[in-house]
Design a protein that fits this description.
heterodimer, A: mainly alpha, about 0% strand, B: about 300 residues, Rossmann fold, 4-stranded antiparallel β-sheet, 10 helices, about 25% strand
């Protein structure tokens, strides 16, 4: 990574943060997922006692480690450690798609890509810089969303139960390995799609398909909890990271000036 | 040292279109070369070939002894490119754009800013330095593009229609700037244009392209000699002596064609000796535009003959 590539990364990030529409698009989904939905889940027993009973049934079937704590606290633990982690696959994919879809095709539309290609940076360096910018942004959004979720959820838990529920160790694996790995794969695929797309919308629509498997996983989590061990999570994370790196290398070699103009 | 060498370079696109057809030419360092031709002549494709954006399907090209197909980044490091399709960021100010491109070309932030301000002053854009590019007029954008191409002090400038879409005054200003750059800094300029009048004012040598082929290459004098069109002398007189080959335009205006300037006093002498009175006399040589149209017309006729 040299200063020239850093300049491209900074420019790409500034391009996103200075665009109010883009910032709103980036923040609205994470806010709903990490602040609004957890709040709804926490207050379900109060807001809709019948649905609360369904949750209670689900909690009773699960081998949750702590026993002796109240049913409400167990439900919050279930939400925090089994349902919310899936959101942290959606958030990095979504935020990286928004940025990377506009990275190549956005520059192509605004006729700025050609100017960048006339620079002494190789097309591979430009590609890497754009992937890095998207990765940085998606990781920042994920981290901020995680912190916002923790603050809101713990405050609400404390208000209701008088104590807090700690996130389990799997969160560490999700935030440090799975989310970046999924993000890298999503970015590389989106940048590939966006380089061939005719408009930003085209690229974003293409990238939206990436969310399909995660949406299915989320639906599965709501219908019946899939218990994933830490080892399996690490394995999934490593596989995703390897897949991302392989795709990145493959995409880089396929990038030629002639194909981009 | 030769700044550019094109050796039988050809480019055929995958769709079968032959955009450049065996073009060979060379440019010395410091030359201002006018690459002229109508739309679709292959000028932009040649610029892209010289910058490694396109791969030649035959032949080789060199820019300061570097092959753009092999080392495009090295060629980019010593060249500045202005094309209609190479725009800058609308959301950034003029200065921010120049600082960004300066950094991308390897200058540090302080150097980029210093150089950016210098160029903005040179391009008379000082007052617009902190305005977003979206508020710039076409002429201002074009001047900023020129500043961007110069930010890293390149040895060669590739300018593809740098005055396209500009009003005559702005176009003239840009051309004056190009000439000044070439004279003061010794930068080699490869100028693609169809504004022949301006090209004649600033270029030292020309290449005339049509349908991907290089029809002619040389200085204006070379073209005039090759054309053998000589000088046209327009005379306003109350008559012409017998035997003097001329064309009558009006009853008192005549056109005489001579090969050299030295023939003009002899003609004047003959008219006066014949007792005629001269009211006005002027001479003109064929302009670049005249030669260009003559050559493109010849090229078209030759192609039609071949097709038949």
């Amino acid at each position: 990574m040299n200063t020239q590539m850093l300049a491209v990364i900074k420019k790409d990030l500034r391009g996103i943060t200075s665009n109010r529409r883009m910032v709103i698009t980036l923040l609205i989904v994470p806010l709903v997922m990490t602040v609004f939905l957890p709040t709804v889940f926490v207050f379900i027993p109060y807001l809709a006692p019948e649905q609360g009973e369904d949750f209670r049934g689900m909690v009773e079937m699960l081998p949750l480690a702590e026993t002796g704590e109240g049913m409400h606290k167990s439900m919050i633990r279930l939400i925090l450690n089994y349902i919310l982690p899936v959101f942290f696959l959606i958030i990095p994919i979504m935020s990286s798609c928004v940025m990377s879809a506009s990275s190549f095709v956005g520059e192509k539309e605004k006729r700025t890509l050609e100017t960048l290609l006339y620079s002494p940076l190789s097309v591979k360096q430009i590609f890497t810089a754009k992937v890095m910018a998207s990765l940085l942004l998606s990781m920042s959004v994920s981290l901020l969303s995680f912190l916002a979720m923790l603050v809101v959820l713990e405050t609400e838990t404390w208000l209701i139960t008088g104590s807090i529920v700690m996130p389990d160790g799997k969160w560490l694996i999700i935030m440090l390995l799975v989310a970046p790995a999924v993000s890298l794969t999503a970015i590389t695929l989106t940048v590939r799609v966006s380089a061939r797309a005719k408009s930003v919308e085209d690229a974003q629509q293409g990238a939206a398909f990436l969310l399909m498997p995660v949406v299915l996983l989320l639906a599965g989590q709501f219908m019946g909890i899939l218990l994933v061990s830490a080892w399996l999570l690490i394995l999934v994370g490593i596989l995703c990271a390897l897949c991302g790196i392989w795709l990145l290398k493959k995409s880089m070699y396929g990038f030629q000036y002639e194909a981009l103009l | 040292m030769e700044a550019i060498i094109l050796d039988h370079v050809g480019k055929t696109f995958s769709c079968g279109k032959r955009a450049v057809d065996s073009v060979s030419l060379s440019l010395e360092e410091g030359e201002v070369f006018g690459f002229l031709g109508p739309n679709g002549a292959g000028k932009t494709t040649t610029v892209k070939l010289l910058n490694g954006m396109l791969m030649p399907t035959e032949g080789t090209c060199k820019v300061f002894d570097m092959d753009p197909a092999e080392e495009p980044e090295k060629v980019h490091a010593c060249s500045g490119v202005v094309t209609e399709h190479a725009q800058m960021y609308d959301t950034m100010t003029g200065l921010q754009n120049l600082v960004f491109y300066g950094t991308v070309f390897g200058l540090n932030a302080a150097e980029s800013e210093k150089r950016g301000r210098q160029l903005l002053k040179q391009m008379e854009l000082e007052e617009a330095a902190d305005r977003k590019l979206s508020t710039y007029s076409t002429g201002m954008r074009q001047r900023l593009s020129l500043a961007r191409a110069l930010v890293h002090e390149p040895r060669i400038l590739f300018l593809d229609e740098p005055t396209s879409g500009l009003d005559p005054e702005s176009a003239r200003n840009v051309h004056v700037m190009i000439r000044r750059l070439a004279e003061e800094k010794g930068i080699t300029v490869f100028l693609c244009t169809h504004q022949l009048r301006y090209a004649q004012e600033i270029c030292t040598r020309y290449g005339l392209m049509d349908q991907g082929r290089l029809l002619a290459e040389g200085t204006l004098e070379d073209f005039r000699k090759k054309q053998g069109s000589g000088i046209t002398v327009e005379i306003e007189a109350d008559g012409m002596p017998e035997g003097l080959a001329c064309r009558r335009i009006t009853p008192v205006r005549f056109e005489v064609r001579v090969r050299t300037r030295e023939e003009i006093p002899e003609i004047v002498q003959r008219i006066l000796t014949a007792g005629k009175r001269i009211y006005h006399i002027s001479s003109c040589q064929p302009s670049l535009e005249d030669i260009y149209f003559a050559l493109t017309k010849n090229g078209k006729e030759n192609r039609e003959e071949k097709e038949l």
